[in-house]
Amino acid sequence: MSMSPSTTERDGGPAVPDDGAQPLLGFGEVRTCLIQNLAGLSPSASVALMQLTPGSPVSKVDRPTRRVVSPEQVTGVDCRLHVAREGRGRAIGTVLSHAVVTNGRILQGTAHVALTSATAKERREWRHYLRQPGVIEVLGSPNPHNVMDGYLTDVSPARGLDLASISDRIIGEVQQSNRLDHTTALRTGTAVVRWAATLAPQPPQAKPTVGITKSDVPNFHVIRLNGSPEDLPLLIRFCEEFALHEWLLTTVQDVIVPRAETDIARDRDPLDSLLFALNELAPLWMPPTHLGPDMKALWEAMESRTHYSRLFERQTARIRDLRDQVKIRPPRRY
Fold first, then answer.
1. Phi, psi of 169 (to 5 degrees)
2. Does residue 64 have a cis bond before it (omega within 30 degrees)?
3. How distant is the alpha carbon of residue 248 from its chain centre?
4. The dihedral of CA 104, 110, 214, 293: what is its sign?
5. What is the mean pLDDT of residues 126-147?
6. CA–CA distance from 265 to each of 41, 97, 326 (Å)?
7. Which of 17, 138, 16 is closest to 77 using CA atoms?
8. CA gyration radius, the chain
9. Phi, psi at residue 150, to the nearest 5°?
10. Each residue of 230-248: pLDDT tens digit?
């Protein structure tokens, strides 16, 4: 896949194709990890870190959690699509990507694109594709469901459209910044959420829908969504919020609690990591239901299947128990 990055101001989603054709599919990938900095970043430091291109503005909100988003970067792609079952297709256009810092602690890199059928039978000049950032035109006539399944089941290295490399690249760009001290307060992994949405005009009262699958690959989740083309910015944000909360739950449940239990059993002190979880991570559990009725409907549908909030509350309670256990533990005798 050929790629050439540039930058544009963030506008909330892909552009409308020149010919007015509505996108048929939306694809994306979100990576979530801890920022490589010992202390949490201040609001001004977060903004400075997200200024990936000098002179391009960042977007930020302070409540209910502080969230700073970089300008969108544009990457040109020209590659074949990995199509499941049967059919062939070629993808030409541009992918949008940006970074997100939450509360000065958590970093996300996300790449996303809308796919539409090409109106021309041959590849056009690049200026045509650059006029519609975040839109890929598909040459050929593969079945959209086969294109979606092919993307969601693709492996690394990618055999088709490689959004993984684009999201990973923006994470690397941020983590290598000389504004960071490249030391982490906690050893954790990177979680990946790959998503695909079927986009089609919907009845007036219809709501977007979501289905989530956990892959056999550790820290990897697949999301399938349905909505209208106008829902795409909402779906992108939902996947970022899901990825953030999935990372929080996984980090607390699979990293902090087991390590603390092992440390206590071996007479080591895990208090620092327990306090980090309670003071730095637990306050970030803020489901995005305040963002509107459609986001609330998506989140509640996800919660009805996964019970993530209940699981997180249970793990947070376990961390408090472990903290209290450490505090009242008698001093070790030598």
1. -65, -40
2. yes
3. 13
4. positive
5. 92
6. 34, 44, 11
7. 138
8. 21
9. -65, -40
10. 999 999 999 999 999 999 9
